[in-house]
Amino acid sequence: MATITAVDSFVDDGDDYYDLTPEEEALLCELDDLTEEEEALLCALDTTIPHLSKSTPPLTKTPFVETSSPAPFQHNGNAGGAIPRQKAASRPLSPPATLDANDDILYPDLTRALSALPTATPPPPEPTTEATDADPTLRKSPLVRFRTFPRKPFAVTDFTSGGAWCELQYYYTLTRLPGGKKTKTAAMKGGTKVHKKLEKEVHTMVRVHVDTKADMFALKLWNVIQGLRTLRDTGLTREMEVWGMVDGHLVTGVIDGLSYSCPDVKFEEEVLSASQEAREESGAKGERKKRTIYLSDVKTRGSQNPPTGAASLRPTKIQLFLYHRLLSEMAEGTLDFFRVLRRLDIDPDETFSDDFITEMASLHDEVFYEADPNASQESPTDSESAPDLVKYGTIRELLWLVKEELGLTFPEGRRSLGQLVSVDYRWREDGSVIGTNTFPVDDEALELQLKSDMQWWRGEREPRGVDIEDSFKCGYCEFAGDCEWRERMDEERLRKAREKVAAGGGGHY
Length: 509
Ligand code: SF4
Fold this sequence. Notes:
Elements: H1 22-30, H2 36-39, E1 41-46, H3 50-55, E2 83-84, H4 111-115, H5 142-146, E3 154-155, H6 156-160, H7 167-176, H8 186-202, E4 204-209, H9 213-234, E5 236-246, E6 249-259, H10 265-273, H11 276-286, E7 293-301, H12 310-332, H13 337-343, H14 354-363, H15 365-368, E8 369-370, E9 389-390, H16 395-409, E10 417-427, E11 433-440, H17 443-457, H18 484-502
Parallel strand pairs: 3-6, 7-10
Antiparallel strand pairs: 1-4, 2-9, 5-6, 6-7, 8-9, 10-11
Helix pairs in contact: 1-8, 9-16, 12-17
This protein binds iron/sulfur cluster.
């Protein structure tokens, strides 16, 4: 089956509102040999499973719900439907054609009030060395310093590399390394290649120009749409972007795999039989055609042995549990995309750039353009006199399609998602699977972890290093030679050993 789907995007405009995922960085590596002009291109997910686009059901446009909190943009509320492609950039903003006038939300014009506020100045560059006691930034919480607008929002890795592995190591990474990012190792690059290879088995990359943040976010939404279609059509999709909230803060992530295949049927039966709610759900679903969706992650290894031990598995578990939670909210329709857009400072009514619309429509003409309903069948058919109409010219309009696709993919809302998640370990050399671990989703464990993590992010406590039984982690840590926590841990061990010797207990120290 011809599946044309490509993900990934970036805007090389110096805007740091949205950081690149490892996959996007890998793409950039691949682009190394391109010209400067080519580097300004993005990759978009294209799907076109040919028969699928034809069978895409007509949209029944149910309005998305916006929160009542003030929006930093104004919807002009003009009536009207699609617009001629030639005038895409200058057309009036409009809700979808079938939207009821009562659903059209008007916001007060805050232009004057906002213009009276002091102009926002760009934040100072983050220090590349750890702040000292004299540094006033020390008094700010990590949340304010690193994850508050205009800084990028949280990523799922903030919680997995942080609290679930070593919080202090993550703090050092944020404060000591350039850009607050881990030093990219050869192993990481090798892992990215395996991920890319897997993705290409499902999607085909197509580069698309983006000029604005609205274009870029639209591309991400488009890739979600194509990912959902690919899942429904083939039973598997990869690299699905998700958004959600933790403690009121935006979190983004990319799920490695979604499929209809249960990773361990027997284990699932055991898990379901242990839960009354799940048992009832299972019974109810027996009468319906059940298409449960399972999340999976891919981890690459330099050796052919999968990791063992709770400490090694914990970050992966937390990562999958958090993906599960974010996707559940999207599946249930409770994610407020307009809140996401406000955090990213993106106007949902900003018209996509002409180049973007043209390129996306060239991939999916039937989706982005519709026939002019006023055009006479007898009138000339050349493009000058019978222009195509742009169906989705803004994010607000595209969100109708996102909601539609989510509804089709998750007909039972969050209950369409399985309660098992899994991780495949693959050998970095050739990408072959060397082991799989499956876990039941544990929302309580996730909640506890996030609660603890957020205490540190909000500055309510100092970052913690590893527990003494997890000190093996220090062996992989680039800050081990200069880590106060580790020093204290060594001193503590020495002190205990001396006490033992003094007490005549001997020991092996
Ligand atoms: S040396 Fe150990 S305790 Fe210190 S930051 Fe690294 S992993 Fe954490």
